[in-house]
Amino acid sequence: MSAATSLRWGRILVGTLIIVGGNRQKYLLGFFEGESRLEVRVIDHTADVGIEVEAESLEELFEGTAYGMFSLMLDPSCQVGHTVKRDISIDAEDPEELMFEWLNELIYLFDAEEFLLSSCEVKRIEGIKEARGSPSFQGDTLKLAASVEGERYDPRKHTIGIELKAATYHQLRLERRGAFWYSRIIFDV
Amino acid sequence: MSGEIKKVSDFTWEIPTSFKPGMRVPGLVFADDELFELAQRDRAIEQVANVAFLPGIVGRSLAMPDIHWGYGFPIGGVAAFSREGVISPGGVGFDISCGVRLVRTDLSAKDVEGGLHGLLSIMAREIPKGLGSRGKIKAPEKTLRKVFSGGARCVVEMGFGRQEDIERIEGRGVYSGADPAKVSERAYQRGKDQIGTLGAGNHFVEVQVVERVFLPEVAEAFGLFEGQVTVMIHSGSRGVGHQICTDYLKVMDHVSRREGIELPDRQLACAPLDSKEARDYLSALACAANYAMSNRQALMHWVRRSFEEHFHASEEKLGMDLVFDVSHNIARMEEHEVDGKPMELCVHRKGATAAFPPGHPGVPEAYRKVGQPVIIPGDMGTESYVLVGSKEAGPLSFASTCHGAGRQMSRSKAKKTIDPGKLKRELEAKGIVVLAGKPSLLAEEAPAAYKDVSKVVDVCEGAGLSRKVAVMKPIGVLKG
Predict the structure, then answer these.
(1) Which of A86, B19, B152, B257 is geometrically suited to a Cys-Cys bond with B293, CB 3.0 to 4.6 A?
(2) For the structural domain made of B6-408+450-479, what CATH number should be given?
(3) Where in chain A are the domains?
């Protein structure tokens, strides 16, 4: 497993390239952590909204989708503190289901507990073979363990972005693309 | 993709099964040339074809004129399944039983002129709105169980509304067959303080004036007249529905694999209607529908309270009767005639509204002679409509019609191209006051982001799906 140390939010500007390091135009945000690169791009969809994420490790891919999702849910200029901590563990039968469950877990935390994400660390993903092509799974169950940090929503401090009702299975992808892991998720708005 | 789409009449387009191999029945889109051209700009037509893959689909995979690209089913999609067919949570959507209700008043436009800002400010204070908003009604598990099984009646019994309101809600305010045990702990958590909250996105409360009546007799039965002030409420089942859909999508995804059902899009995950999973989902969907109707009932209560405070008169005195409350994201078992024989079908309407004809048992008694009211919200700057179900819609569309204007521009494009400050001034120049939680929402929900609702309802009338009763223009809008 790679060292998936927690990435920071950094200063995020919607639709703008903030961190140099890629050659694509439509960044929503980009992060550098040591040598590792993360890209999140927004997908235009008539009624809804989606993101595409590329990362070097599977753990960072899951972290990246979480950051990407909260960058839609929150005004990018918001500062989110680290006063709340949660451990998350998820089981799924295939990699895409794991992604579906992971993002919907975070949407649940937001809706039920007003949790806003400031940092996350995916500690372990068990059961996905890191092979080229579509990821396959070993055994019956995939497991993800993560810890997330953030703050309870405070209307004086935080401005909400888009209301995401859920992450959907529509056109959901999670695959190996060359040196990167790639995922695409469409949200219901 | 191969087969050619064929225009079969002024308002219908057929997508043959050869369009995409795997389609069990053809698709049928209700649209004129212009709306069909708009529908073809994104992937909505392919989604109509995808729905036709589902086992047990009867007739055609249908799309209403406000069709646009959704996830899984298109928005504006209608599909009916035989008993041997399936039910799909993606055919209902995450906001289960999202819908609209219309409240009439005895007030006329001049009664609200000048005082509109004041009235809207009271409503903004009374109605919790925006993302993560918390309601004034706290519903611990015991209360929630009652709401889940009893629907709007429970909220009325809690003091939020009048007994007679119930008679003017689809299904008398209750979707039967609800089982609160089929709802996850998470849905309970999300639902405990969201009754009577508006939410964000395209949800709103709008003060309107009836601009024109098209069918005087029907309008009279609905209690509507020209120049009258009405209030429209658009909201759904909030976190409860979102969670139930999420939970059952996962279940259905496993069932689809178990049953070997081939799906062109995973969001179309479904289960055979006679399976335990399908029954469980229908029981949970009923809970969400009951929650949604309760939510709109509570929202209407705060609207009435706001009017009472503003006009110093009781809501009864102001004539604030409920006209109707109808869902546009729902699946339900209904009887329809297929090839001349009555058949029990599971009708999915995702961004489409039931439109039952005169005499149909699904129409509230007060309106049975004229037909079911259909409430069509426009967008912020444009008109909303009241339609009525027609006899022709039964065989044409499983008694369904459109649900609104339908988006034509993505939210990010709207945000990039529309200046919210300028838009607000333009709307105010047209006599429309808007209070929105945040400026960017104004841009996302701008009239230019939507299709022309008047064209949509005209196509519905032209195709025989419903008839226009009245058109209302907005004068005050409250958004999340």
Answers:
(1) B152
(2) 3.90.1860.10
(3) 27-188
Pick from B48, B15, B36: nearest CA to B352: B48
Return the CATH class of domain A27-188.
alpha beta
DSSP state of A146: E
How many cross-chain Cβ pairs, A to B, lie less than 8 Å apart? 113
Q: Looking at B196-328, which runs of residues are DSSP E strands?
A: 204-213, 228-235, 271-272, 322-327
Contact B69 A44 (CB under 8 A): no
CA distance, residue A16 to nearest chain B CA (Å): 12
- Pair of tokens at residue A4: 């998936």
- Domain spans of chain B, in order of start: 6-408+450-479
Angstrom distance (rounded) from CA B471 to CA B480: 24
When mean pLDDT is compared over A76-80, A96-100, B420-424, the highest value belongs to: A96-100
Q: What is the largest CA-CA distance in chain A?
A: 48
Q: What is the largest CA-CA distance in chain B?
A: 65
The ipTM estimated for the assembled molecules is 0.91
Contact A170 B68 (CB under 8 A): no
Cross-chain Cβ contact A112/B239 below 8 Å: yes
What is the C-alpha to C-alpha distance for residues B337 and B350, in angstroms, rounded to an integer? Answer: 21
pLDDT tens, position by position, B225-273: 999 999 999 999 999 999 999 999 999 999 999 999 999 999 999 999 9
